[in-house]
Amino acid sequence: VDDVRELIEFSRYPPSVAKFKIFIIDEVHMLSKQAFNALLKTLEEPPKYLKFIFATTEVKKIPITVISRCQRYNLSRIKSEELFNYLKKITIKEKKVIEDNAIKLIVKISEGSVRDALSLLDRAIISNNNGSLTLEKTQEIFGNVNKSYYIDLLEIIFIGDQEKVISHYRNLYNSGIEPSLFLNEFLEILYFVKNATYIENVSTNFSLNDNDYKKIVSLSKKLNSSDVLL
To answer: What predicted TM-score, i.e. pTM, was given to this entire model?
Structure first.
């Protein structure tokens, strides 16, 4: 609240050089109710030179009284290929050796968020002390299980070996993977197997690396799509 009051006090003075005085508040949903209330009067009758930019990923947490006094712009996610090229450019500029598949994994985890992608990339680089950053090392850093394990599990399921299925799943579970993440990843593999002929070229696919792609295509040829649906 004190920070907001200080900001409001500072906003009363017009800019000495520029045309506008602009305040950007990131993660604005983190403000307290009292802080939002302190902002209301300024938002209702702002001086012509004053502009506020509120950024948030949790718009539902912002009071309707604040939303009603703002113009809203929904920003779409960045395309995976664009985000990959951006991170690749950064790694080259910073002279870091990172495998393309490792960058693809970071892009996938970030879900189109540039800020999250940069944070993840920074964390991966810091966590990797020596040598190049490989896909395996990146998976270890972020607790991401290699997709080949899911593909192998699916193949064992269709073979019908119950003991191996249980054993394979237990190995995955004991590796520390969250059950919800397991379901999401496994369903994604099912989708890829069913639609193997329509999957994009490996170079533009950010969910599968080269080896996983080949295993998916090979497995899809052995299975009937109707069996996968069941």
So the answer is: 0.66
